[in-house]
Amino acid sequence: MRRPSRSGVALPAVVVVVVVVAVAALTTVLRGPESARPAATWECAGSDDSAAVSGSVVGAGHEACTPGALAVDGRTFTRGGEPFFWLGDTAWSLFVNLTRAETEEYLDARAAQGFTVVQAAAVFPQAGGPGPNQYGDSPHGTGLDDLAVTPGDEGEEQYDYWDHVDFVVAQAAERGLVLAVLPVWADGQVGELLTEENAGAYGEFLGHRYGGAGNVVWVLGGDAPADGVEGVWQALADGIREGGGTQPATYHPRGDQTSVTWFDGDERIGFHMLQGGHCLRYDVRAELVAQTYAAGLPFVDGEPIYEDHPYCWRPADGYSTAQDVRRDAYWSVLGGAAGHTYGHHAVWQFLAGGRSPELHARGTWPEALRSPGAEQMQNVRALAESRPRVEPAAVVADPGEGAGRIQAAVAADGSTLMAYTAAGREVALDPGVLSGTTLQPWWFDPRTGDAVRLDPVENSGPATFTPPAGEGDEADWVLVVDDAAAGFGAPGAGRLPGRDAPASDRTGASGRDLDDPDAGFGPGDGGEEGGERGGTDEDRDRGDEDGGGDGGGDDDGGDRAGGRDAREDAGEDGRSDDSRGADERGGGSADETGDESAGDADDRKGGGEEGSAEEGGAEEGGAGEGGAEGGGSDGGESERAPAEQEAPAPAAADAAVWERLAACESSGDWGIDTGNGYYGGLQFSDATWKDYGGTEFAPQAHLATREEQILVATRVRDDRGGYGSWPACASRLGLPRWSW
Angle of helix 100-112 relative to helix 161-174, nearest 10 degrees? Predict the structure, then answer.
């Protein structure tokens, strides 16, 4: 994001990309500013590839463990040996503009929406200079060779800017999010704040402090070309490496540019990044994607057009829509990208009351978190994860150009083909590139994630497919054509072998695929892989009896929230010292929490121990306010993977099933058969299934009988005091997994 003219004022932004990493929390002690506040920790748990390391990961003298870090594998990413889809969000000012409580609110929302990466900046200059964070702390004094680091991290005097960065890294790790850190937002800063003389030492500081964090990757640059200053970035990258930061790195360029221009073949760069920018230059964008793909490394568009951004910074020309951000996403992914980054114009700057908008932004960041485009991004991830990787291919007879261009891609083994028709044009193609004699076509709706099955066709020559009717912003669709023998099931509804669940044709009534408890989410969101936001397994789940509490350690209610902001003083989401909150259901009133953003607990129920379907469904995911923002049964696009169906809209009878499912955690409504092998909406990670004796019945939960699942779920309930935030109960109706 860049001003068309800076007029001498540099736009800040240090990118911290939070990549979803399986939770293997670090054991580094991270204390808040209050001296009485016990340490929050990153625990090493649940990650087979975690390795203990000595020395500093987040501050000198701490010991930590390194979870499976992001790795490059050909044109794709892996984490812990598993395929990893980069679904990023631009949160450039995260370290500067949010309090701790607001940071957790933001991270909770993005994790629940299936994002795997958050991009933010470690040093984010504002109004022409480095601004302090929300606690009045600045990252440095006179320059980057004068970093503002104080010994210790307790109390007002010790807790500094970098201790707050530590806190954000820790909170991201708890939610399964990996941070890809831009050391400094480069626009206007290279040669002044960041120089070839200080870049190496600054990089070494960052590498020493965060090199052991498996949920960190590095993003050099920051809305700036590297012409003539490549040496500065190379020195910074070398310093990070020398300090112990061996995680992959990339470079964030200016709009209509790609890192390939300067760093093609540079071993310091592990993956490439382009910036599509905020103007509707469709053909330029296509060329940029093709140029970056040709370099042979994984790549992402790290800053496409933001949602609700004035076209080319001119409000008179209108503001971008959800369809604009969908178009960029599917064009990129089917153009060979290893994922995609989303952004909202009010979110990257965390616009709120009392803060002046940058570049004609409007609204507030809490409202923008649940904008249509943000809710719909999980669908591109779900689609990609339900099929083998596809590579761009010229198989469409008339792909066209401009806004209506059709982008197609084919799997290397010929098992599937995808074509995104941005303007709803019919797709004429020769499916001869596909294996098999019988083909199964589908239309995938990028707005809802639903899939419409078409009649099988013979692979005997050119074929034309006409998408379902749609007008304006509702006209785009993705054609998916499979080799019928592959048996993939509905697009977006199942994950491939090696991604936690075998491909299948089993989907819920009209919601997210329930075969995989992590479908559409990062590991921290299902509640079974350590994503319950801190504390031991027992502590994390005690706060979840209402389906909305997060758990947390036994000190969570007063510890993580103890800080300088009145909104944080009395604990997160109303949790008292035993993590249950004032009413023992994970939530409290605004008066009890002291958190102005928390609201009344009654407005945030998640179908808990005493909550009904009306409480959970209507308030959080029904036709009321919760439905609009939470994407509930009123048709909002929240947190759901596609469902196979014969028509674009789900059958009316399905709604009753999902209304009952909304209260399944607490009601024990075992009569619900979700149609995917689970009963009562309960799902188990492999670890939970094993830990509670499930493997005596079947290797995985979905292979067990209804009675066996009930028995294991009862053991979980008896041990933890609740069933936890089971995805099937919360996601379809937009019920909160956390007490926002």
Answer: 30
Nearest by Cα to 581 from 561, 566, 563: 561
Distances (CA, A) of 375 to 369, 420, 429, 471: 8, 19, 31, 20
User: Which residue, 31, 584, 533, is CA-closest to 592?
Assistant: 584
What pTM did the predictor assign?
A: 0.64
Kindly list the distances between the CA atom of residue 518 and the CA atoms of 22, 373, 474, 527, 571, in Å, as whole numbers in the listed order.
11, 21, 28, 9, 28
The amino acid that residue 423 corresponds to is A
Total Cβ atoms within 10 A of residue 471: 7
Task: Identify the residue with better confidence: 188 or 461.
Answer: 461
734 contacts 627 by C-beta, under 8 angstroms: yes
Q: Are strands 477-483 and 438-444 parallel, antiparallel or unpaired?
A: antiparallel
Tally of CB atoms within 10 A around 71: 17
What single letter denotes the amino acid at residue 699?
A: P
| Residue position matching structure tokens 């057009």 | 305
Count the alpha carbons within 13 Å of 77 in the hemisphere toward its beta carbon: 30
pLDDT tens-digit readout, 652-666:
444 554 455 444 544
Cα-to-chain-centroid distance, residue 133: 24
- 471 Cβ contact list (under 8 Å, min separation 6): 424
Q: How many helices (H) and strands (E) does the chain have?
A: 21, 29
- Angle at the Cα of 120 (from 114 to 123), degrees rounded to 5? 165
Owner of token pair 């109960």: 729
- Say how many residues make up the chain: 740
Q: Residue 355: exposed, middle, or buried by beta-carbon count in 10 A (0-12, 13-18, 19+)?
A: middle
Q: Is residue 286 left, alpha or beta, with left meaning phi > 0 and alpha meaning psi from -120 to 50?
A: alpha
- Torsion region of 319: left, alpha or beta (phi above 0 gives left; psi -120 to 50 gives alpha): beta
Radius of gyration from C-alpha coordinates of the chain: 24
Q: 320-338 b/e with 16+ CB inside 10 Å = b?
A: bbbbbbbbbbbbbbbbbbb
Residue with tokens 């909150």: 581
The pLDDT value given to residue 670: 63
630: exposed, middle or buried (Cβ count in 10 Å: 0-12, 13-18, 19+): buried
Amino acid at residue number 265: G
Residue by residue, DSSP assigns 170-227 as: HHHHHTTEEEEEESS--TTTBTTTB-TTTHHHHHHHHHHHHTT-TTEEEEEESS---T
Query: What one-letter code names the amino acid at 596?
Result: E
Report the 10 Å Cβ neighbour count for 127: 12
Domains and CATH numbers, the chain: 19-385 (3.20.20.80), 392-486 (2.60.40), 523-730 (no CATH)
Q: Is the pLDDT score of 83 beyond 70?
A: yes
Identify the sign of the CA torsion 546, 548, 552, 558.
negative
Tokens representing residue 384 in the block: 């990609």
